[in-house]
Amino acid sequence: xxxxxxxxxxxxxxxxxxxxxxxxxxxxxxxxxxxxxxxxxxxxxxxxxxxxxxxxxxxxxxxxxxxxxxxxxxxxxxxxxxxxxxxxxxxxxxxxxxxxxxxxxxxxxxxxxxxxxxxxxxxxxxxxxxxxxxxxxxxxxxxxxxxxxxxxxxxxxxxxxxxxxxxxxxxxxxxxxxxxxxxxxxxxxxxxxxxxxxxxxx
Length: 202
Prior knowledge:
The chain is built from eight helices and no strands. By secondary structure, it is an all-alpha fold.
């Protein structure tokens, strides 16, 4: 039987971690200056990448991390450093080029991973899959994962309407704001990873 409690718990957890409302300015900042078709494709690609990464880690997470001898804190620190590099580009305006490379890279990194499918989301899914009881529990877990990705896609797709309203000057402002937010997220992620390493070694 479908486990509503498991579904609700994981969906809320992923909603808080993946933060669909918070991703909007970052998505707008990373995709500004592109045709609407390209932006929509990038939104879809980013969600597909995130869903693929989450699915793989949900099914094989423990085995992958154990095989690579990678700890969760190490994953968090690496993801934070990657986000920090992207944030610096947004703050300095270096994302204006090269557009062809950026079209592919932004959808995959950092949007798909580690912004959407970050260490927090990955760990939450690994634990949820591990703790889910029976077919109903597993069904609830995967339904929650699917729904949060649909929500993310809808938020990013329709955030493009904001671009049409705020025009070029607004896009520059949003890009700088996204850079500040992303740098804060990145630093916090690094701090969390370092804290876990220190606590683990204590």
